[in-house]
Amino acid sequence: MSLIEFTDRGLYCRRGDFYIDPWRPVDKAILTHGHSDHARWGSKAYLCQTDTKPILEVRLGPGIYQTAGYGEHTFINGVQVSFHPAGHIIGSAQVRVEYGGEVWVVSGDYKVENDGLSGQFESVKCHSFVSECTFGLPVYQWKPQAQIFADIQHWVLKNKAAGKSSILFAYSLGKAQRLLPCLTEVTDRILVHGAVYNVHMALANAGIALPEVHRVTPDTPKEWLKGAVVIAPSSAEGTPWMKRFSPYVVGVCSGWMNIRGAMRRRNADAGFPLSDHADWPGLLSAIKSTEAECVYVTHGFTAAFGRYLNEIGIHSKEVKTEYGDDEAAEKSTELADTIA
């Protein structure tokens, strides 16, 4: 029997009697991070990395939350569990599970470039590695973050010169915080949608250092709205909330912007391929560094990516889970965050 089983509730460790990122309510859930496709409501107790707790509290509400720092060992029914940096968003972690000399690592979502906020991805040696492959095709290869930030800054300054507001669509958890250091270099005031503000304040109140932002409300001074720099979730697209910034242009921050035509399909004026997931080279380097005997690929281009791994001599299996694209998963959560 494997140390980790793939069940209809989620990834289950029978020996420890806990689940990792379950998509059904369970007694004991260990979470890799706070995005809504991995952190779901209804379980009796949660174990997460320390910086993820404030995110869970604002999104899942009151509950039993146990935390651990990176590299700290927790024993559950004799099974050793530890969190290791995944580099995906603030508080994101890979879950290392060990018992009887067998080691599994469930990576959740991850990226290998250090964004200066989410921590540096840590390679963890293991026998079995569970990996996402959201962008598991060779066409997905990211530019360095510094280059993308320079493109965003140039775009904002061009819009300002033309008397237009710059609205950047970005996930309320993760990318919105990642953009802040970039934008503070070209504006002295960053306005944000309520969904972004709620996550921002949960993190700031927990002691995480972030630049100041201003929530857009009916009382926001009108002079702030013209030529503004705004971060909003994609759920705001096409809503009356946007009209107050006219004239405005829209930029979408997403790895999907790496594909020609994606910007047009999103009705965006600009697309910035900024992703919180590993690209094709990043996935391959991360997987190879684990030296895993078997790699389980999930949520993404699983068939194509798994087949490639097998072709290059890395034993791989495709597994079905209920994790998905952050953007689709986050839209309903962002709406809830707005009214929270």
TrEMBL record:
Gene3D superfamilies: Ribonuclease Z/Hydroxyacylglutathione hydrolase-like. It comes from the Bacteria. GO terms for molecular function: RNA endonuclease activity. InterPro entries: MBL, RibonucZ/Hydroxyglut_hydro, Xnuc_lig_assoc. SUPFAM superfamilies: Metallo-hydrolase/oxidoreductase (SSF56281). PANTHER family: BLL1145 PROTEIN, CLEAVAGE AND POLYADENYLATION SPECIFICITY FACTOR FAMILY MEMBER. This is Putative mRNA 3-end processing factor. It comes from Cnuella takakiae.
